[in-house]
Amino acid sequence: MGRSKPKKTQAGTAADKAALGAGFEDRFKNMTHEEVVAFLDRIEAVAMPADAQTVRTMAGTIRCLTEALQVKGISLDRVREIAFGGVTEKTRKVCPPKEPNPKAAAKPKEPKPGHGPKGSKAFPSAEKVQVPHETYKSGDCCPECLKGRLYVHGRPAVMVRFVGMAPLDAKVFEREVLRCHDCGEIYKASAPKGVSQQKYDETVPAMAALFRFGSGFPFHRFARFQETLGVPLPASTLHDLVIKSSWLLDPVLEALMQYAAQAELIHQDDTVMKILDRPDLLMRGKKERKGIYTTGLIAKSGANRVALFITGMRHAGENLADLLKQRVAGLAKPIQVCDALAANKAGVLDTIVAHCLAHARRKFVEVVKYFPEECRTYLEALKQVYKNEAATAGKPPSERLVYHQKQSGPVMAALEKWLQDQVREKRVEPNSGLGQAIAYSLKHWQHLTLFLREPGVPLDNNLAERSLKRAIMHRKNSMFYKTQKGARVGDLYMSLIHSAELNQVNPFDYLVALLRNHAFVEENPEEWLPWNYRATLAGITAE
Fold it and tell me: pLDDT, tens digit, for every residue of 448-458?
């Protein structure tokens, strides 16, 4: 006898009709894995085997299409972020709370530090002009009460006035020329005292390099800008001055690299770059690697920081391995902070690797639109960890480690268990965006949580990410380097400029000091680093 057909129940029939009716795709893509399995079981119970298999195939097809659309949507969102600037990734923006917090709404918003009008102390390079009172002076009788005496108040009335000027200025000295009407002898006036016979002051290549490699201004654009201000200087001249000056700065770069090799913490990352004239292209087919990259390394040793930029065919890990060859034997292993790309681990590295929590977090931010509740759990956990990080600002690494172990340790342990439960209980499709984000975190969990076991480990690699914006800005404005030599010059100036900024030093003053004292710099370059060059300069001035 044939198989008897199961009797349909009224409840099952109504549910199945609703699922197979209009809007099935929208309902299906929002169903959990357990709901999908239960739905298919009900179909098999009330339908013929062939029909049940057809429905199961349709369900799988819709699931695949939904996942593909999610991946496409994530890719499009990333393109929009790159092209038009991404929105903030703060948790309250990407995953707003279900109900507004009344305490937060009632609490007045405090202004952020650094915003608003700046005081006179914010202009250390501005010219200070002392203005005495036009009528009275210290010691005069008070014209109001006719009894007291006037004295100098401790705080002057400050007025800041801005004046526009060209980045490069020029002075024309018209020296008087006398000629004897009898013998024809010519007598020229000497240059004013203190004026060098050198046509281009050291400030010229320093300013040109700062515009070119510090702000992404191409030389031709800078030359046009100068011409509009009435102080023309050809782009070729700017280029030659910057190139010649770079030869005088090479010893400082070598000293910075030597110092960075001994650091206890090194951030690293790289970005693509382009060089037009490449000899290796003649060997096409013999070399596997064709790409050009700019590596950004930020080394921290105590309170001092060093920024290094290296452009070439090597990946970030290989450049770091070359740098660490200069490390003194016997030192402890440095902490290497990076993302999980294989390029960051290329080369022979003897380091303690810490991965970037911001990279893992961003994978959940990218899919928060499709999995809001699951992503909220992850983002809220990391939000608490970053609050703990802010609470330890300025504390010694040992105290910071103990605080994170006590406050952030349970949060991260609960988060790890939640991630494992999503996979073990099959609450998430492995190939979906959420599944891939969870897999990334679980795969690199030990490196992501190194800050709970080693003192001094940062939560993320944002320091290197921000430094690479300088190279990206150069790529957007100039598009490429012409030669490898030009790339080397760009790396030198970017390294010096960004190292000065990281140590709260004026990069223009720093470059000028190096160029004006290049003879001393060549003798002892280690005394002309951003954090000690002022003391060295003061000693030379005193002598």
Answer: 999 999 998 99
